[in-house]
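Hi support team,

I submitted a single chain yesterday and got back a structure, but I'm not sure I'm reading the token output correctly. Could someone confirm the output below corresponds to the sequence I sent? I've pasted both exactly as they appear in my results page.

Thanks,
R.
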Amino acid sequence: MASRLQRELKKRGPFQSLEQEVILNIARTGDQLLVRAERLLREHALTASQYNILRILRGEGKPLPMQEIASRTVQVVPGITGVTDRLESAGLVRRERSTEDRRVIFVSITKKGLTILAELDEPLVAYEKKLIGCLGAAEQRELIRLLEKIRDHLDQ
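Hi R., thanks for writing in. Yes, this is the structure output for that exact sequence:
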């Protein structure tokens, strides 16, 4: 019998391997979670990448070099300069050149950026609970463990 993913993708034959089916399941699930979260972020005129950058800056509590922000994002942001440009245009971040090294640009979150994050905190926590609520706490911890195990393997 065809797997659920085979039916969802209307794939006629089986996957080439169990590993392929796992990878495609992870990709499809991740995409669906991201799409749903982005709907909520759009209500505040933010993308997932912009939200991620704002959270990094709020969490650090001080200006960070743009390269450091890029290294901390959940998803790779190839155009981090463009994302930062849009955040700056919206008044959510501020950029300053380093006085020691003019090539380094520090980014800090503004009061307006902090306000938007504060408005999103509670609705996003509730939304995350709704999205992952089908898994118990032990299942969530096991899923985290398994995903971390895969990432550890990728880093080798």
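A quick pointer for reading it: The two ends are 36 Å apart (CA to CA). Let us know if anything else looks off.

Best,
Support desk
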